[in-house]
Amino acid sequence: MLGLGRNGLRTLAGRRGLSSAVAQTSNSTATPPPQQHQQQRQNGDRRKDFVNRTSRPFASATSAEQIKLQKKYQENLESSKLESLHDAVEYIEWRGTVFPQTVDKIIGLLERSANLSSLSDRQLAVLLSIFGATCDTLSRSLRAQNLEKVEKILREKGVVMGLLSRNQLIEAKVDNRSRVDAVEELGKFEESGVELDSKSYALLCEVYAKQANPKAITDIIAHMKANGISLTEDHVAQLIYSVARGGSYDQVGRVVDTFSSSMNVVRLRCAAARAIAEREKSEPGRGGFEVTEMLRAIPTTAKLHSFENNIYVVNVLMDLIENGQFDAFNLLSSYLIIAESGTTLGENSLNTTVVARSKSLLSEGSVEEAMALYSCVHPSYANDFFVQKLKNTLENNLKSITTTSALEDYFKVITLAENRGMVSSANEFLLTYCSKNTIPLFAEVFDHVQQSGDLRTILGQNPEIKKALGRQLAQHLIKTVSPAEQAALLAKIATVMFAPSAKEAPADTRDFYRIMYKVVGKDVKLVLPALDLMKNTVWYEKREFGTAIVHQLLYSDRDDHLAAEKIRILVESNKLGQLNCYRLHDKLTKFMMADKEKRVNLVAKVLALDFPPDATSKTPVKFGGRNLIKFMSNEIISTEIAAKLVQFLEEDPRVQLTNDELKEANVVLKSCPEKLDLLGKLRKSATMQRWRSSDTNELLKELSNFTSETKEAVKSTLKRVILQKVIKESSDDLDQLVNILEHVVEWRKEEKFPDFLKSLSRTLENHALSKAISANNMVLADRIWQMRSGHPAVDVLLSYASRLFVNGQVERADEVCEELRKSSQIIRPQILEKMGRRLKGADPSKMNELATYLQNSFNLKSKDARRVVLQAKTDQLNQLIETNDLPGALRMAIEETNSSKRAFGQVPIMIEAIKRNDKQTLESVYTMVRSAHNVDMANVNLAYALIHSDNVNRARSLVERQNLNIESSVLQYFTTLASASENPKLLRDLFIVFNGRASTLDLNYLLELATKKLCKLSSSNDIESLMKLSHEIETTSFPLQNKLRTFFDDLKEKHSSSSREFVDFD
Q: Residue 1064's pLDDT is what?
């Protein structure tokens, strides 16, 4: 070896002051797992180019052609079909790329080989090389573990290592940053009987260079000289590295100058620069500056930009980036051979070294450093393996993130990947991965993408991920309790599902209608706040979401008795913005024809939402007029229905047909000119819009300014606007109403007074006369009477006659009654009740006389005539109860009951007596009802009073104890009372108490009213009430009608635990 034993070397070292130096070992340790790479990088590999790589016979640079071949045959390379260690040696020497499968295969071959003596020292060195930097696809920690395993195998099999293999073993350990003991390694050389060569000493120098121990290196160099071993750049570079690593930058220049005449200055300066790069970890930015200063000192005659020298600068570049200086390429660009673009290295084999280090960094978990380094690679040397592994690493990292702080760091990394060109779009990468996998912080990732503004673009290009993303958001929705958070999540789901995409057909979008209807729980409670949260930037998604919900509500009308009410709430909320009504035409027509009288107005409101909210809106979708014409062309829609629709649409400011649309209507409605004329009313000019927004007095003034040259059609249109506005505003200002009617009288004197104006004027006369009668302003009432154009409505005539009679004007009342008889209008019982409400405040003593008067005047039944006075007496009774005069109320009730032979006022008195715990009054009322009717009727009234007083159990016990059955008319009466109450639980409790005691038909009607009222209020307590109803129905096996059965089945499913765990998106 050196001609000295192990102790002899120590003696030599002691004489030269090297004893303390050789006893030291490297502070480096094996690389920890990737998640600990930040701590491990404190002991980084800084050797690399200090040993001349060109001296290795088995490690040559990989050509661009060989790289291409590797890509082409990568599958075969990765399969590692090696049958012997000799095959493995050939594979390593000529293939150039070593994959993890190859390493595992070679370890297996070494373990199974009975005799390794057939391997030469050079071949063994080749095998050991794959456990160092040659295998750039494994992390240093894994390489170190594999190397320890191989070293143990060789030791157990008695393999004696020669110079090449032992040098390679030390080099691999240094590459892996494993702990290296220089003295121990010298001992192994001595035991093997192997003489150290120049490279062996260079490796020992490298161990001390990393410790910044130049004294030990100078002693080794002196020892080499003494033994005739020549000094090379490999040794001097380590000496300079150790000096620079210790911070003695001034001495670096002197050392370099000493050897500049015989050695490569570029390599020596770059060695110092690599040591300085270590400072980048502790002082970001500082190391980069000092590195450039060190390189600036290289003389121009040193040929820095030659290929042979630029490899050393590239190593400095890699070290800087590995230590966190991601802008190193820009710092060193003037010293590098770069491409014409100025953004990457030149097209040469130096790129292969950078790719190898990039893969090594990536395998260790240093993702940012790996991306920054790989971005310097010329496009011709792009490595698909690295890019794919980078994406896999990014995906695995995203899956394991559980904290928001870690997620924020991850966003920075993925953004860097996009900026460096590793992924085409960071946000698209995030959403695509989330659509295929479940990650802990999906909601936060989605919010990040949405806030970036890329969501619509990404979904437009990748519509196939919509359903998967919507499913995950829906899972978060069903686990959320807060209504505000639920609304926000629903808005996000709608934004995803209805994002526009040129790759989707309209039928694909309609497939989401059913899904969204299930997500919202077949209700509109969450839809309204969700629509509020959808901004104008997603107007298309908002329109499609609203259309989807309305479409499904129209479709479910046959099964959902609340569908019409839900549509009304949604349409009147003023939150929809706009709908795509063309997709609703078929369902809308069926919905309207199911109940033409009640639903025409609602259908008109839906059709109006097909128009932009503002006529001057820049919204590109303006097909409302065309769609309305197509809807009207349906033969099932009669002219009468069309007239009602147009009447409602006229009042909506957003509905306006253009001249082009009316021309199209001429073609479509050619066979139905009546509908065409009706649609002509929807052509609203700017003048019409101004009229509708102006005050009535201003319009009257403008009308008075019209001249004889003004067209009659214009005058009639303005008169119609005035009358419609007054009727719609329903003003209580009687003077103004009379003033308008006076103008109407003048208009009637003109030659042309169209029928539509006659109809509107009669409506206004009825409205004004009713207001005057209710206010008991008989002066204005008489004035209005004198201006009438025909027979007022029956209820108005009866009210007027009754008010005149009560006020003592019997003769005038007779005249009005005669007018009513001449009109041949039918007097219905409901009209008598309505009239009675208009006589509030009248003298109660006069009401009985009024009932007799009307009975004689119109030959009414006594019970019908009594309806007129019932409301007034009920008001008087309630006033007595409110003033705490319960005895007075009881006396009044008894007197009225004895007079009419029918119970009066029993319910409010019973309720008040129960509240006050006044048993005597309660017994008196009970006796009164029993005397007027029977015991069962008294018990039924008492049961309702108990229900109203929140004594449901007592009421149920009473009904069961007395075995009561309730008649249909009586149940309907109590149902009406409960519906008029502000307490929604009354209807529920009424059903619970009388379940099984009335007809199934009446109880189903009661349930229908109860569900409508409870769903309309939509509080948590009302949900509990519905669930209580559902339990009662299920317990008693009550036979529900189809719609109610569907409602309660959906309710049960919605609030079951299983439905809270999964949303069906298929």
A: 62
- CA distances (Å), 566 to each of 231, 498, 513, 978, in order? 92, 22, 16, 22
Distances (CA, A) of 214 to 46, 210, 218, 221, 244: 15, 10, 6, 10, 10
Q: What is the pLDDT of residues 651-691, one digit of tens each?
A: 888 888 888 888 888 888 888 889 888 888 888 777 877 88
Task: Give bridge partners of residue 762 from the DSSP assignment.
Answer: none
Cα-to-chain-centroid distance, residue 1029 = 34
CA angle 881, 887, 893 (to 5 degrees): 75
Would the pLDDT of 619 be above 60?
no
**Per DSSP, what are the bridge partners of residue 181?**
25
CA distances from 544 to 460, 506, 530, 565, 1028 (A): 15, 11, 13, 21, 36
pTM: 0.74
For the stretch 988-1024, pLDDT in tens is 999 999 998 999 999 999 998 888 888 775 555 567 8
Write the CA distances from 151 to 125, 157, 629, integer angstroms: 12, 10, 87
User: Can you tell me the distance from the alpha carbon of 861 to that of 866, in angstroms, rounded to the nearest whole number?
Assistant: 9
232: left (phi over 0), alpha (psi -120 to 50) or beta: beta
CB-based contact 238:48 (threshold 8 Å): no
| 25, β-bridge pairs | 181
Show the beta-strand stretches assigned E in 782-923: none
Q: Is the dihedral of CA 995, 1000, 1004, 1005 positive or negative?
A: negative
Percentages helix, strand, coil for the chain (3-state, rounded to 5) are 70, 0, 30
**Which residue has tokens 């295929």?**
436
DSSP assignment of 5-33, as one string?
-HHHHHHHHHHTT-HHHHH-B--------
Is residue 210 within 8 Å of 54, Cβ to Cβ? no
**Position 584: which residue type?**
L
Residue 1050: what pLDDT? 81
For CA atoms 134, 137, 140, 145, the dihedral sign is negative
pLDDT at 60 over 50: no
Say if residue 384's pLDDT is above 70. yes
**Confidence grade of residue 286 (pLDDT, cut at 50, 70, 90):** low
From residue 210, alpha-carbon distances to 35, 234, 252, 568, 971 in Å are 24, 14, 16, 79, 97
What one-letter code names the amino acid at 125? Answer: A
**Which residue, chain included where needed, has tokens 């040559």?**
60
The number of residues in the chain equals: 1066
Cα gap 629→666, rounded to integer Å: 10
The per-residue pLDDT for 80 is 54
Which candidate, 143, 93, 83, places its Cα nearest to that of 113? 83
* The residue type at 875: D
Neighbours of 707 (CB within 10 A): 5
- Quote the distance between the C-alpha of residue 786 and its chain's center: 64
State pLDDT tens for residues 237-278.
989 998 988 888 888 888 888 888 889 999 999 999 998 888
Going by the DSSP 8-state scheme, the letter that residue 338 receives in this structure is B
Give the per-residue SS3 of 684-706: CCHHHHHHHHCCHHHHHHHHHCC
Mean pLDDT of the chain: 83
Burial, 298: exposed, middle or buried (Cβ in 10 Å; 0-12, 13-18, 19+)? buried
Decide: 881 and 889 in contact? Cβ < 8 Å: yes
1035 pLDDT band, cuts 50/70/90, is confident
| 3-state secondary structure (DSSP) of residue 279 | helix
Using CA atoms, how far apart are residues 281 and 43, in angstroms rounded to an integer? 11
d(CA 435, CA 444): 14
Helix or strand (DSSP H, E) at 596: helix 596-608
CA distance 892 to 756: 50
Cα–Cα dist 609/649, whole Å: 10
